[in-house]
Amino acid sequence: MRLILLGPPGAGKGTQSARIVERLGVPQLSTGDMLRAAVAAGTPIGLKAKDVMASGGLVSDEIVVGIVADRIEEADARKGFILDGFPRTVPQARALDTMLREKNLQLDAVIELKVDENALVERIATRVADTLARGEPVRKDDNPEAFKTRLVAYREQTAPLSEYYAQKGLLRVLDGMQPIDEVTAAIARILQTEAA
Fold first, then answer.
1. Angular region, 8: left φ>0, alpha ψ -120 to 50, beta rest
2. Which letter, b or e, does each residue of 23-44 get, where b requires 16 or more Cβ atoms within 10 Å of its Cβ?
3. Would you state the pLDDT for residue 129?
4. Active-site residue among 19, 88, 114, 148?
5. Active-site choice (94, 114, 127, 148)
6. Among 2, 13, 123, 172, which one carries the catalytic annotation?
7. Which of 20, 57, 62, 182 lies most in the core, judged by the most C-beta atoms within 10 Å?
């Protein structure tokens, strides 16, 4: 099962990804984690990324797609994967489609968690409070102003992916404001339908 989870920051993608990983035994592929691993491993694509990152630049779509292409060749991703944080733009989605086609692979579904943005701001405040209560460090981007900036970036760059994948017949939209277990159950129903 090859999936993409879409939704704005704080929509619950991480929580649901972890549950899908547990259910299906496929890895959640975070482009940030893969990038850091490729740089640490000194792979050819990792060395390219390291140079760009060292100069303070943004890693190109070509490099990110290359890192994803390398990662999905690993044994744990043969049964499938969940993409987390990629694609972020329609050009990235097109590049991903091309790369998958070259490998004779295709996505099974793109699941979008629709949420109320005002409720998300409250959710982030709760997440910060819970994190602090556990004595853990708070993510730098988990403050209301940074979060609002992330929401704007999502709306402008990533939200157009919904239409892109809807036109391909891959988009499945869920109410991400439901209780976590209900969202998990709805995703499980989608996965069963796609696997049939």
1. beta
2. ebebbbbbbeebbbebbeeebe
3. 86
4. 88
5. 127
6. 13
7. 20
pLDDT of residue 194: 80
Is residue 139 among the annotated active site residues?
yes
pLDDT averages per 10-residue partition of the chain, 196 residues: 90 91 92 83 85 76 89 92 89 95 95 89 81 84 74 85 95 94 95 80
Write down the pLDDT at residue 113: 94
| Residue 141, pLDDT score | 63
Is 23 annotated in the active site?
no
SS3 at position 43? coil
The answer to whether residues 108 and 172 touch, using CB atoms and an 8 Å cutoff, is no
At 127 the pLDDT is: 79
The CA–CA distances, whole Å, from 42 to 39, 49, 51, 192 equal: 5, 10, 11, 39
**Catalytic residue list contains 36:** no
C-beta neighbour count of 2 within 10 angstroms: 19
Query: What is each CA distance from 187 to 86, 108, 162, in whole angstroms?
Result: 19, 13, 17
Retrieve residue 80's tokens.
Answer: 């499938």
DSSP 176: T
Options 23, 79, 103, 139, the catalytic residue = 139
CATH number of the structural domain 2-195: 3.40.50.300
Q: Check if 78 is active-site.
A: no
